[in-house]
Specification:
A hairpin with a 4-residue loop joins strand 7 (about 135) and strand 8. It is globular, with a radius of gyration of 23 Å. The protein folds into two domains: about 5-280, NAD(P)-binding Rossmann-like Domain (Rossmann fold), CATH 3.40.50.720; about 285-490, N-(1-d-carboxylethyl)-l-norvaline Dehydrogenase, domain 2, CATH 1.10.1040. The strands form four sheets. Strands 5-2-1-6-9-10 form a six-stranded parallel beta sheet, with helices on both faces. The chain has helices at about 5-10, 35-40, 45-55, 70-75, 110-120, 150-155, 165-175, 190-205, 210-220, 235-245, 285-310, 315-320, 320-335, 345-360, 365-370, 375-390, 400-410, 425-435, 440-450, 450-455, 460-480, 480-490, and strands spanning about 30-35, 60-65, 80-85, 95, 100-105, 125, 135, 140-145, 180-185, 220, 225, 255, 260-265, 280. By secondary structure, it is of the alpha/beta class. The structure holds D-mannonic acid. D-mannonic acid (CS2) binds near residues 227, 229 and 300.
Length: about 500
Amino acid sequence: MKRLGFSTLAAIPSRISRPRYDVAGLGVGIVHLGLGNFHRAHQAVYTDLALDDAGGDWGICGVSLHTPQTAAVLGGQDGLYTVATKEGGREPELRIVGAVRQTLFAPREMSRVLAALADPRVKLVTLTITEKGYCHRPTTAALDPEHPGIRHDLLQPEQPVTALGVLAAGLRQRRGGGAPMTIISCDNLQSNGRVLRTVLLDFVALQDPALASWIADTVAFPCSMVDRIVPSPTSAGRAEIDTQLGCEDHASVVCEPFTQWFIENRFATEHPAWDRAGVCFVDDVEPYERLKLRLLNGTHSALAYLGCLAGYPTIAAAASDPLFEAFANSLIAESATTFVMPPGVVFDVYRRELLRRFGNPALRHTTLQVAMDGSRKLPPRLLAPIRDRLRHGEELSWLALAVAAWMRFVMGRDDAGTALDLSDPMAGELRRIADEARDLDTYAERIFAIEVIFGNDLGRDPRFREPVMAWLRRLAGEGVRATLSAALQR
Ligand code: CS2
């Protein structure tokens, strides 16, 4: 079979939608750092639809920071790829996206990445670098100057390995021309734009205070809330798409139909007509971030840990088990007590839709994928609502169970004794603690003492420790099913 590209586009069945704008003639106006599946199924789709509707030179230069494959594969397909939205038993809907006009692998093509960031025709940078990419201390949201990537980039500022180092080096070149820029974080962090601004300015100030003040004056960092469930592609999923296309697409992505993007209306530059593609520009994104992080992501993580322990390979399989669904409902209800619903959101409608989305059987979103990087995901998703409840003198129940589920997961075996993979920036330390612990109490003691996760408050607070310990004992002693059934019958 031939590969997807300009030369095969005309032969693709007409039922598959594709760009109406002049893809080959499109100029680059956006640099994106983190060319993963989520970007291709989310921001790039919004840009593609906005280009269809309103034009403009808003092509994307997609930069991979750590692995060369995606940039190379897209390069071999003229930047084209397919997004398939799937829900239940419905026929998937396919669209070929043309917005990604250039792809670069930063470690090998750094000078081109920096030139793109300095180019005044580039107005926007978007980022999907995951929580750990911010090199911050999750409890203070300030830069971690001891982070190995940051230490490297301070010594070798022209060959950076972190996104912050790349932005700093690019902005250093850009400053000569003085052009403003808007940088939008699209990661699951509360106040993501503010966190990004803080860590970037902290980092730049360590090298070049004058550059830091230029950035502070010239670059805007709106917060944004992004939402779409995008599992890692499977070869079976890709093969189905290839059959529909009649050619091979090695960069296709499968995702749910649901999609949302809220951006704080604070730009230093123009932007694509994203509103025509469904983006909501609002004065304050934080309530939407809080809603999404605490209800969607918090529940997602909890289902992932409990699901892994109970032997469920996918989120959909776990969420369709009535016991897990009842747990998810209770957790959502507890988390929702910690904030005010943003304008236009009806709690019950949101909750029902969330459970339907988790249960979407067409997505093979693995519990292990969502379980990744718990040390970075727990603070905004579960520990923030926990702090809010404690501040208001309220007890913890399901939120404490979710934390205990993570602790039990880190111990490395599921309820049937099968080994579980731990993918986390702190994996080494976490596993060492689990291996060395004589019993559950000493294990929990050392986990609670990890300040970058629990801060210097929660890990010492009996109102947090006691319920978490009680759940951990039950999970370890009786397993997930028995723990949930007993708890939910109360
Ligand atoms: C998930 C998110 O992997 C995870 O941690 O919770 O990627 C989730 O699917 C997205 O945030 C949905 O918008």
